[in-house]
Amino acid sequence: MTGLMGRIRGWRLMPAVVVAVGLLAACGEDSTPTSTSPTPGAIPTLDSATQVTITFLSYNYGTPGLGGQGTQALIDAFEKAHPNITIKPQGVPVKDVLTKLRTDTAAGTPPDVAQIGWSKMAEAVEALPVVPVQQIPPEAEWKEHTAGMSPRILSAVADDGLVKSMPYTMSIPILYYNADLFRAAGLDPAKPPATIEEVREYALAIKAKGSEGVYYAIADTSKSDFLTQSVVNSNGGSLVGGDGEVTVDSSAAVQALTTMQDLTTSGAQPAVNSDSAVAAFNSGKLGMLVTSTALMAGAQKAADGKFELRTAGFPAFGDKPAKPTYSGAGLAVLARDDAHKRAAWEFIKFVTSEEGFEIITSRIGYLPLRDSVATKLADTPIMKLLEPSISQLDTVTPYTSFNGTKANQAVVTLQDEAVEPIVLRGADPGPTLASAADKIRRLTA
What we know:
Blueprint: H1 4-8, E1 52-58, H2 68-81, E2 85-91, H3 97-106, E3 113-117, H4 118-127, H5 139-146, H6 151-157, E4 158-159, E5 162-163, E6 166-171, E7 173-178, H7 179-184, H8 196-208, E8 212-216, H9 226-234, H10 251-265, H11 274-282, E9 286-292, H12 296-303, E10 309-312, E11 327-333, H13 338-351, H14 354-363, H15 371-376, H16 381-391, H17 407-425, H18 429-444
Signal peptide: 1-25
InterPro entries: Bact_solute-bd_prot1, SBP
Organism: Frankia nepalensis
C-alpha cells in the first residue's frame, strides 16, 4: 500500500480541460507545473481578525451515499482550524452543477469554491470566471503545499503550465460484492469474477437463489459517462478517437454495450436506475455492484452487521486488459474579491492537505493523493477495500472529453439517448449508438 502514489505517478490524471486521447501517460521527469508568471498579485494571508464567509458548491455535500457526511467532516475540521472563516455549503446534484454555476454567475452570485467533475471542467473553465488556483497564494506557499502531491497529477491538470483547478477527489470503478450471497449461491467469495463472462455466470447463480445478481451503474443518474468509458475502453474501444473524432458508434463500443444489454435481458441484471441498484445492494438484496469507489463509505456503513462486504477489480472483457476510467472532481475558485479568494485558497489548501485527504479517503472512499495518507491508512478496512482498484492503476485509462463548449451536453445525449435505452430498455445497440453519435458530432463540430 505504501507504493500507492508511485503507481498513481505512472499514469496521467487527465482533466476534461484537454481532450485525453492517449493511453497511459508516457514516463518522463516529474516536474511541478510552472508558468511564466505563476502568482501575479498573489494574495497574502488573511488577518486573523478578518471574518469571511465563503460559499462552497459541492455535489458530495448533503448526499447519503456519495460522501455527504465526509464532506461535512471536512467543513467542520476546517472551521475548527480557521475560526475566522465560515463555510456556507450548497448541495447540488452532479448533473446540475454546470447549470447551477452558469445561472449563479449570470446573476452575479457565483459560489466562491465549486466542486466540478472532470467531465464538466472543460466547459466550466471556458464559460465561467474561474480564478486559477495556482495564482492565489505566493509562489513559495504554493510549492510548499503541493510538495507532497504527485507532480504528474499537477502537471496533468495544468493548462499551459498553470493549475486552474485543484485535484480534489479521484475514484475508480470497482466491483463490490456481498460475500454472504456468494456463499448462498454456492460461490467462493475468495474467487470473485475477473471477467464480464464470469460476472454473468455468478449473477445468474445468485439470481437462482432469489436475489438480484449484478448491476453495472452505467446508466448513471448523475449523467456521468466514466463507467461507459470504462466498459468501452476495456473492450478495446473509446468514445473519442486519436484526432478527437467521435467514436461512440465504433464496433468495439457497440459490442461493449451489447454485452451490458445481455446482462439485463438474461436476468443477470435488473432493469432499474443506478440509485435503485445502490439501494438494493446496500440492503443486501443485490449480489454485485460495479460503480465508483466514491460509494465505499456508504456501502461499508450499510453492510456493517448485515452482510460481509468485499471488493474486486474492474472486470475484463475476456483476455483483454481491464481499463477502468477514473472519475472525480477538481476544486475551482470563482470568488470575486481578494478576501474571498484568499479564504477560498485556505479552504482548498486544507481539504487537499494530509488531514483533508485522510478524511476524504477514510470517510468517503476517494483515493488519497498524498503518499503520507496512503501509508497512514494502509491497514484500515477502507484502504483494504480500495486495494483492488489500486492494483489496476497500471491499466487505468484517462478520462476523455468530447470537443467544444457543448461537451457536457454531448455526454448527456450519450447517456440518455443511447446507454440507458440500450442497457435497460432493449434498444438495438448499433442503430441507437449511430443516432447518438450523429447528434454528438453536430454538438461538438
